[in-house]
Structure formats: C-alpha cells, structure tokens
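Quick one: Exopolygalacturonase from Flavobacterium seoulense, structure tokens please.
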Amino acid sequence: MKKICLLLLAFLAVTPQAFSQKNNKDVFPDGTKIPNWFLDATKINPSDLGKFYSVTDYGAVNDSTIVQTKAIQKTIDEAYNNGGGVVVIPKGVFMSGALFFRANTHLHVSEGATLKGSDNINDYPKMPSRIEGQSIEYFTALVNAYGINGFTITGKGTIDGNGLKYWEAFWQRRKENPNCTNLEVSRPRLVFIWKCDNVQVQDVKLHNSGFWTSHYYQCNNVKILDLHIFSPHEPVKAPSTDAIDIDVCTNMLIKGCYMAVNDDAIALKGGKGPWADKDLSNGGNENIIIEDCEFGFCHAALTSGSEAIHNKNILMRNCTVNDAKRLLWLKMRPDTPQNYEYITVENIKGYAYSLIYVKPWTQFFDLKGRKEVPLSYSDHITLRNIDLKCDVFYDMKITEYDKLSNFTFENLKVEAKNGAVDKSIIKGLTLKNVVVNNKVIK
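--- reply ---
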C-alpha cells in the first residue's frame, strides 16, 4: 500500500510538467490549441485526383527552345472540359509563358521534367493581380491558380523561371537609377495562387524565378511540403526572389522545405501605405507554422513585412539556418500601421549574421498626404531554444513610432562578435538562461 501511495504521489508530481511540455508543443504562441490539421503532413497521391493528361498528347514536345504555352494550356483546358484531372509534365524540358489552371485541374511535374519559364515578358500578360502589398494590374506568373479550391502541385520535377535575363535587366536599371523600385523592371513570378483554399504543393523544385518565387494571396488551409526553392545570390544575384510570400492567409503549414534565395525566405505580407488597414484588399496572416526546414543564403529566414499590417500566431520551429543574413526580421515600416504579435521562433541551430533584426524600413517611404506617422507594434515575440553563431546578436534600433513590448528570450546559446543588448528598446524584455559568448545575460 505504501508503495502504491508513493507511486501515486510521483505521478501527480510529474504529470503537470509533462502536460505543460506537451501543451507547449500543441498550442500557438497566443495559447490557442493547434488544430489536428497542422499535424497531418500526408502527401497527396496524384492518382487520386483524376485522369492524367500529358502535355505531349496535346502538341507539346521535349524542346527547351520553343515556347509551348498554347499546347500546355490546351492540355489544362481539355482536363477542365472533361471534369478535371492532372496535367502532367513528363520527363524533358518544356518552355512556356503564363499558364492558367482551372477548377478541378492540378499540376504534376514528373521526376526528370522541367517546366521552364519563357524569358520574354510578353509571354506573361498583365491582369488584375497583387504585388508588393498593392492590388494592381501586373504580369501573370508562370503557374497561376485563381479561385481553385483543392489545387495541388505535385511531382519531383522542376519549375524553373529561367530568370537570368530578368535579373540582368533589373541590375542594369538599378545601375542607371539606384532608387528604382522593384516594379520598374517587368518580371514574372514563378507561382501565384490567389483565393484558393485547401491547397497542397509538395516535392517540386522551384528554381530561378524572375521575381517572387511563390506567392499565396487570400488563401486558407495551405500545405507546402518538402519543396526545394532556390535562386542564386552569386555570380548574378537574383533580385526579389522571396521563396514564399504569404499575403492575407490563414492556416498555413510549411514543412520540410529547403530555401536559399537572394531575398527573404519566408515573407509575411498583407498591405502597405498610411491607410493600409482600411483597404479591404489587405489583411493579416494568422496561424502559420514553419517547421523542419533548412535555410541557405537568404536576407532573412523569417520576415514580417515590409508590406504587412497584421501578423499573428506565427510559429517557426525545428529548423536549421546555414547562411541567413538574419534569423528573424521585423520590418517596421513608418508609413504603414503594423501590428506583429505572438510570433515564436524556437529550436533553431546554425549561423545567421543577425539573430534578431528590428529596424525602421524606410525604402520608398510615402505618407501619401497623411499628416501623422502611424504607429507600429511588435508584441509577444519569443525566441526560445536557439543555438546560433552570429555576428550581431541583438540588432535593433527603433523610432518613437515603433512600440516593442513583451519579448522573451529563453534558452539561447549564442556566439556573437557583437553580443550587446540594449534593454531600453523593449518594454517588458524577459531573459531566461540567455548565454552569449559563455556569459549569462541578465
């Protein structure tokens, strides 16, 4: 009996801690439960999506020098007209301009296949679109899906933007005018998915985009699994090739991906400008999980902004960073009202130039006649269980219009050339077991 009582007491002592540890893994940063949807990373079998339609059956040929947009679009349209199915890019190289997927159609890029983008911007017609926090007419992407619930991209092949010509044109323009905007040189994105719910993109390689690599706008329930996303930073830098742009989206899982691009790897967008929060085409991003990913060269592994108004419940965990300029970058844009809240980055190892970077983003600053500068907030930001080498640990500088509060740094082991911490920048900075250059920071 005595032994049973001791066992019961031990169980009661351990159980709350065990439950606490378990719940810590199963909740978003604001404490709400993570739905089971996020725990299911099952791959889609394209055979379950309907009949296969190979582009070679509709006139496309294995030739990397011929633009074959008409034949590939004909394949998509045929699948749609027959009730839907999977458009297959078989082994080989097939060059195309903008493609428009339709209801119940999907894309499968076979292993050994490349869907190659044309380097002629005329092959990407302008349409009502979304870019850099603005709803404007802009060039279409190589792969476009609008209002297609359940849209999928599968296969172990490559979607290649063939971006060199666009990159060179951009740098030439920047040489002529150092203040030129990103939109002054006409460039297509690689993948643009708009107003689509229950999307899954898995296994494919997204390489050499002319502009943003993949852009998700006004989407819900999106899973991005095991992608390889790459655009070079040398010898020719591929400008503005963000790996994944999340723009007014809810419920997104990014898992098992490799990202190395000459801009931000994962960028949280949503709108810009002094009245951005009043524009119905703008909005926030909520419930985003990034896990088990690896980051090569990038300007930041995770960026909030610069065209963003509200980001909440962003969880990045169990990732390796090899050559990022920043691990977490909060872009405080002084011409835009912003609220970044409940963002957690945890269980990270590797190298980044800066561990956390928070500074005003003043590029193309424009109050558009608004007299007062809008306030921006970052609240409940947590960095936990991080083992990182960096040049600058705490790279932060703000203005009177930036309000930072309730930051928690917990279990950090950092080697830094500059390990200084200015606690005055944040209202409510909590440091728990923060070791920088073998010294505990209190």
